[in-house]
Write a structure and sequence with these properties.
This protein is mainly β and 189 residues long. The protein has one domain (2-187). It has helices spanning 2-16, 183-187; strands at 23-30, 34-43, 48-57, 63-72, 76-84, 90-100, 103-111, 117-127, 130-138, 144-155, 158-167, 170-179. The protein has a twelve-stranded antiparallel β-sheet with strand order 1-2-3-4-5-6-7-8-9-10-11-12, with no helix packed on it. The chain is globular, with a radius of gyration of 24 Å.
């Protein structure tokens, strides 16, 4: 009798467990100059995520679209997408992000409307007090077209963010310091 009761309990438990499904959300845009919608689909079980956007310019009826999707893999994610501007120029992107512990590496290629292919490489590393990120975009000849280094550290209630952005014209450095106040300590005063 005990085995019959246990089998019945297992059957009820399996029947009650809900089946997870992909969730879809639609965002509608309607402004004086543009109208359109964005459809976002997310399936947490399979790791699929997509954004599909179509915007129409009201004065001439030109349409711009953007599609982006990402799939979870054993080592990280794969990403791909395309974008078409109002003038008809189309760009595509494909890439992969590999994660290992507190470190990620990203590699991808993008093809512009004129057929030029650019190579993207990035890496990030996190620690207990912030993160470092390096990003490079190279042309077909291997020359760096654009790059960015980001260095963020948090100590106590102060966060310092240093960014160095560069292209063929040189490097621009930006440092931002933000102090945060612990609001709980002020309430008791």
């Amino acid at each position: 009798m005990k085995s019959i009761v246990l089998i019945g309990t297992a059957a009820v438990t399996l029947a009650v467990a809900p089946m997870a499904m992909a969730q879809t959300r639609t965002i509608t845009v309607d402004t004086p100059n543009y109208s359109g919608e964005r459809i976002i689909t997310r399936d947490s079980d399979t790791g699929f995520y997509s954004r599909d956007t179509a915007i129409t310019r009201k004065d001439d009826g030109a349409v711009a679209t953007r599609y982006w999707e990402s799939n979870r893999t054993d080592t990280g994610r794969t990403m791909s997408g395309s974008q078409t501007r109002f003038n008809g120029d189309t760009r595509t992107y494909e890439g992969e992000r590999m994660r290992r512990g507190n470190h990620t590496r990203t590699h991808g290629t993008t093809t512009g409307p004129n057929g030029e292919t650019l190579d993207y490489r990035g890496q990030s590393r996190w620690n207990g007090h912030g993160y470092d990120r390096r990003q490079r975009l190279r042309n077909e000849d291997g020359q760096v077209v654009a790059g960015r280094n980001t260095h963020v550290r948090q100590r106590g209630n102060t966060r310092v963010r240093r960014v160095a952005v560069g292209n063929q014209n040189g490097v621009r450095r930006v440092t931002t310091t933000r102090r945060t106040v612990n609001r709980r300590s002020r309430r008791g005063r």
